[in-house]
Amino acid sequence: MSRDHARSAGRPVTGGAPGDVAEVSGGSDGAAEAPYLDLLARDASVEAYEQPVLLARAAGRPADRIAALERAKLLALRVRSELEGRRRREAELSALFETAHDLAGLRDLDAVLQAIVQRARSLLGTDVAYLSLNNPARGDTYMRVTEGSVAARFQQLRLGMGEGLGGLVAQTARPYVTDDYFKDDRFQHTLAIDAGVRDEGLVAILGVPLMLGPHVIGVLFAADRRARVFEREQIALLGSFAALAAAAIDTANLLTETRTALAGLERANEIIRDGSAVIERASDVHDRLAELVLRGGGVHDVAAAVSQVLDGTVEFTETGAASAGALEASRAEGHAVRHESDWIAAVAAGGELLGALVLRGHPDLDPVDQRTLERAAMVTSLLLLARRSAAEAEQRVRGELLDDLLDARDRDPRLLRERAARLHADLAATHVVLTARLEGPAADAEEEAAARRRLWSAASHLAATRQGLAAARDGGTVLLLPLTTADTATDVARRTARHLGTAVHLPVTVGASAPVTDLATQPDTVAAAYTEARRCLDALRLLGRAGDGAAPEDFGFLGLLLAGERDVGGFVERTIGPVVAYDERRGTELLHTLEAYFAGGMSPARTKDALHVHVNTVAQRLERVGRLLGEDWQTPARALEIQLALRLHRLAAPGPH
Question: Where in this protein does the record put region Disordered (predicted)?
């Protein structure tokens, strides 16, 4: 109706929204439908459809107008419901189409089933959706995929046929729905199933069967954590998803069967190819091993190459790491022998066992592969002999350089540095000289000589890995090792004693020198440090500390007697240096107080008389000394060293003493 027509009818006209009084005051059904057309266009909520009727009543409109609005409202609500239904069906069809598309490009069954469950949950608007599959061997059904579940026990449920709602669906091949699970006695309740459902908090459950022909292979569920009535359309929709899930499972099973058949054919082809590849593999092994030897490869390179050829794990092991019986049998027979699920080939030279090549977890070995392993063991023995010769040569070179540093003091410093650089040693760095001696009686001279050779070999290996030098001397071994900022000479001595003792299986005593520097330019330094290290070693043995390691700093004032250069200043600094520095910075008299304290028999009363101060002053000074030197400064051993350091400091000071 136009505004002019409204005026001619004598009714008021206002410029409001379609739901205003002006819009609901018309006299025909067409005017009554106008506001509802707007509501439909705006996709308004159901509650909004009451507004035009309420406004008309509030405005006192005639009963026929209100009745017309009521009829228009009912018509509009039916239209709205129809539109919603069409949208819902469109969404359902779209989801079914997408799921079918996923099924057509099936690559991962779990991913397809997860998508089905997710879409079912979304379209039905439920809290949880899940899918279970039957296990014919066990006669039950188990959870395969869940969406929205939060309870671990629920996700791991297994239902016997006929147990719970899902077991009933799996047994009868019919959909079942319950508005309230725990109040429904149509199916068999069990403690395990009820506990899982209770953990998940489920109330309303809908289950539909997954069918392959006449057989049920599982159940698809939709469930809410509140009471709910599932409509017929929702049951049909879930059934459609169940059909797609069943098709996905069937497709996956067919693919699995096809892959199995193809794998069988491939295996047959492999057997044929393997038969023709035996000669090629043997030739390939020969070429690889020859190339390794020519380019200077090691034993682990040989093991890696043979691992690739034999399609297994080949390792080189020391003699003690392999089965003694199998290793001896392999050495005696000259062939690889089987030991449990492994194959062992002895690596030997001239009757001496050098180790073994072990093929792990490969019990079935054809003759060609066995010969391949034996050939690799022979090549390994040659490489080990070559490496031993090279190592012995390097050890001799390192020993000769250290001998020159100890004996030939007129050597050219530049030549010494160059020789050291070729051995990756830096004579300009701070070093410590160590002398090592075996402990324990030997059965005979031959055994003692063998033990000394083992000690020299272990020391040479340690020196090579630490970028140092080693030489046999005076019935033992002398080492020159670099000293890092994180270590002390004592640390290096003790660590070396442990390392060498473990290597030779006998106690090894190690004496160390104080740190030394500029070894190439100061030719007497190494020899003096060696003498100092020997004094430390002799002191350890006299004190009954055989098998230990120590440096001059470990012997307190006795270190002055052991030290070749009598490092008086260093001893004083280590013992009372913090107190000397404190007096110099603050002008205090802690040193004078200490002298008076010891002179007075460590009596605070006699000390205050000697210093002419109050006893509290003495106590405060001694407390400060304790903080500077440590709480144990008054123990007999520390007190003796402190008194000696005080006397040496007094004697070293200028002026009368």
Answer: 1-28
